Amino acid sequence: MATTSDIRNGMILNYKNDLYEIVEFLHVKPGKGAAFVRTKLKNIKTGKVIDNTFRTSEKLEEVRVEKHKKEYLYSDGTFFVFMDAVTYEQINVPAEVIGDLEYFLIENMEVAMKLDPDGQILGIELPTVVIQEVAECEPNVKGNSASVSGKKATTDRGLSITVPFFIEVGDQVKIDTRNGEYIERV
Question: Which CATH superfamily, name and number, covers 129-185?
C-alpha cells in the first residue's frame, strides 16, 4: 500500500475497482485543517479523466506496471502487431487499447508496452518525438508569414496538425507525441 506522499505522475492506482493513471497532482496544505492531495486520474480502459482529492491519511493501492520494449510491425485493421526484439514473439494488440496513438505509430518504431502483473496490456508509451511527412496542406500564399496561427496540414499517417505557412507537401516534420503539436521541419 502506498501513501499520498508516494504519489507521482504516471503512477497506476487500483481505485474504485478500476485502474487509473495519475496525470497530475498537487499537494495542498491549507492554513487551517489537514493537508490533502488534489489529483487528475485517467482511467486506463476508457481514457476518461476525473478529478479526485485524497486525504493525507489515505492508503492507496498501487499497481506495479512492467514496461517491455516492443517493435511495432503493422496493423491489419483490427489489431496492431508488435514484436519482442529478444524472443521475436509477436503480440496482437486490439485497436481499442491503442486508440488515437495509431496516428503516431510508424513501422519498426520501438515502443514501451505497459503490462499489469497478470500480463494484461494496459497501453503503450511512444517516443517523445516522431518524424512524419506532410501529405496534404494548403498552398503557401505570399504575405501570409506575418500571422502567428499557421495552417492545417495532414501527415501521411492521417494526423491533423497546425504547421507554419512555409511548410509544403512532402516536407518532413517533427511532432511531439504527448500533445500532437508541430515542433520543427526536418
Answer: Nucleic acid-binding proteins (2.40.50.140)
